């Protein structure tokens, strides 16, 4: 038996071809795509304007990706909801729903685990299990929309995993997510965060997408960066800055630098001055994040005064900077922690 095809990962063009190869009329593809990506049906059975016979055939030929919410935690402080989803093969991923004044934002995972090994990150502790398919990335947003009953307007790919280590599925996901025949999320409302895989960043610049690229920088010198992120042994900050300028040139989209402040590691005034030197010529935006401590590592958050001083130095150097509000700290908001706790029992 040949493996069943993943129908929810097909683009509209692919779906049209697929169904016409089976002798179906073109309008079938339109109906089906609508059910999957607009009405967010959770099974073929729900597609009531398709004949029973056709739905039965679909069940035989295709997998219909769905996720099961095994745990939902809501923050009492800010209403943030964290979802632990079980994939159809039993693997677990996390997604987070946040309500902002400008709309609802969902943070999704792109892989089960991660192989980048950033020292402060809980998702990296057990390495990579596997990458997610496009439909598994989409379904995190669809399932959350169904469960909350509210429209999602922003998507950030900042959950578990390194999105550019799952490049083809990521780009497929981005096209489906922003397709006007589907959920139609604005490209400018989508952010992809990377630990800095230079070839992927350059390739993404050429996809003709208007999404925001966020670079997890976390240090302003190669030496410091290497002590926090093994990937820094592969690509230097110089190469990263060149890839960022290239991305900006090609897309016109301003880059975001993410910088998690770790006490005594990367939060000194000198660190801030070095970061300003990198940020200024790129006219990028810097997002400071007090590191979320994980119990497996010794890293500690910078104190309020150091965060303030760090921010002031950047501002004095005319760098656009914000300190990220910590959403959902009371519900294991930091990457990968809910899944870990669940697995530990
Ligand atoms: N792999 C991608 C996206 C997932 S991580 C990337 O590296 O960008 C999303 C962001 O959370 C990254 O900036 C990452 O460095 C940061 N992060 C991971 N663990 C963290 C922690 N414990 N505290 C603060 N930020 C963390």
From TrEMBL:
- Could you confirm whether the keyword Nucleus appears in this record? no
Instruction: Identify the enzyme class.
Output: transferase
List the catalytic residues.
94, 335
List the record's Gene Ontology CC terms alphabetically: cytoplasm
Q: Its Gene Ontology biological processes?
A: rRNA base methylation; tRNA methylation
UniProt cross-references to CDD domains, sorted A to Z: Radical_SAM (cd01335)
Where [4Fe-4S] cluster binds, per the record, is at: 114, 118, 121
One function term, GO molecular function aspect: metal ion binding
Show the PROSITE patterns listed in the entry.
Answer: RADICAL_SAM (PS51918)
Q: Which domain of life is it from?
A: Bacteria
Q: Which cofactor does it need?
A: [4Fe-4S] cluster
Any idea which UniProt keywords this protein has? 4Fe-4S, Cytoplasm, Disulfide bond, Iron, Iron-sulfur, Metal-binding, Methyltransferase, rRNA processing, S-adenosyl-L-methionine, Transferase, tRNA processing
Q: What is its EC number?
A: 2.1.1.192
* Gene3D superfamilies the UniProt entry points to: 1.10.150.530, Aldolase class I
Q: Which residues bind S-adenosyl-L-methionine?
A: 161-162, 193, 216-218, 292
Query: Mind telling me which InterPro entries this protein's record contains?
Result: Aldolase_TIM (IPR013785), Methyltransferase_A (IPR040072), RlmN_N (IPR048641), RNA_MTrfase_RlmN (IPR027492), rRNA_lsu_MTrfase_RlmN/Cfr (IPR004383), rSAM (IPR007197), rSAM_sf (IPR058240)
Q: Where in the cell is it found?
A: Cytoplasm
Pfam families membership: Radical_SAM, RlmN_N
Name the chemical reaction catalysed here.
adenosine(37) in tRNA + 2 reduced [2Fe-2S]-[ferredoxin] + 2 S-adenosyl-L-methionine = 2-methyladenosine(37) in tRNA + 5'-deoxyadenosine + L-methionine + 2 oxidized [2Fe-2S]-[ferredoxin] + S-adenosyl-L-homocysteine; adenosine(2503) in 23S rRNA + 2 reduced [2Fe-2S]-[ferredoxin] + 2 S-adenosyl-L-methionine = 2-methyladenosine(2503) in 23S rRNA + 5'-deoxyadenosine + L-methionine + 2 oxidized [2Fe-2S]-[ferredoxin] + S-adenosyl-L-homocysteine
Which family does the record assign? Belongs to the radical SAM superfamily. RlmN family.
Function description: Specifically methylates position 2 of adenine 2503 in 23S rRNA and position 2 of adenine 37 in tRNAs.
Q: What else is known?
A: Reaction proceeds by a ping-pong mechanism involving intermediate methylation of a conserved cysteine residue.
List the protein's name: Probable dual-specificity RNA methyltransferase RlmN
Task: Say which species the protein is native to.
Answer: Candidatus Acetatifactor stercoripullorum
* Gene name for this UniProt entry: rlmN
């Amino acid at each position: 038996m040949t493996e069943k095809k993943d129908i929810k990962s097909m683009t509209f063009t692919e779906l049209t071809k697929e169904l016409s190869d089976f002798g179906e009329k073109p309008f079938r593809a339109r109906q089906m795509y609508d059910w999957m990506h607009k009405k967010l049906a959770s099974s073929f059975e729900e597609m009531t304007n398709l004949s029973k016979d056709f739905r039965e055939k679909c069940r035989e030929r295709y997998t219909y990706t769905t996720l099961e919410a095994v745990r939902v935690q809501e923050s009492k402080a800010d209403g943030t909801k964290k979802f632990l989803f079980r994939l159809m093969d039993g693997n677990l991923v996390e997604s987070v729903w946040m309500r902002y004044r400008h709309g609802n934002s969902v943070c999704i995972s792109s892989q089960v685990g991660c192989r980048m090994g950033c020292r402060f990150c809980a998702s990296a502790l057990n390495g990579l299990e596997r990458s997610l398919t496009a439909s598994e990335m989409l379904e995190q947003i669809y399932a959350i929309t169904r469960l909350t009953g509210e429209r999602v307007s922003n998507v950030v790919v900042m959950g578990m995993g390194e999105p550019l280590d799952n490049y083809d599925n990521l780009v497929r996901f981005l096209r489906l997510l922003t397709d006007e025949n589907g959920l139609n999320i604005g490209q400018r409302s989508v952010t992809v965060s990377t630990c800095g895989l230079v070839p992927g960043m350059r390739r993404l610049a050429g996809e003709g997408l208007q999404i925001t690229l966020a670079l997890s920088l976390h240090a302003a010198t190669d030496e410091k960066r290497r002590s926090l992120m093994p990937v820094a042994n592969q690509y230097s900050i110089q190469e990263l800055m060149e890839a960022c300028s290239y991305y900006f040139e090609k897309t016109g989209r301003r880059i975001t630098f993410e910088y998690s402040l770790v006490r005594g590691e990367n939060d000194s005034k000198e660190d801030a001055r070095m970061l300003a030197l990198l940020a200024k010529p790129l006219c990028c935006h810097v997002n400071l994040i007090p590191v979320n401590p994980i119990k497996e590592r010794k890293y500690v958050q910078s104190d309020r005064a150091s965060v303030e001083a760090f921010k002031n130095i950047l501002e004095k150097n005319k760098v656009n900077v914000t300190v990220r509000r910590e959403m959902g700290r009371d519900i294991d908001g930091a990457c990968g922690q809910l899944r870990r706790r669940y697995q530990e029992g």
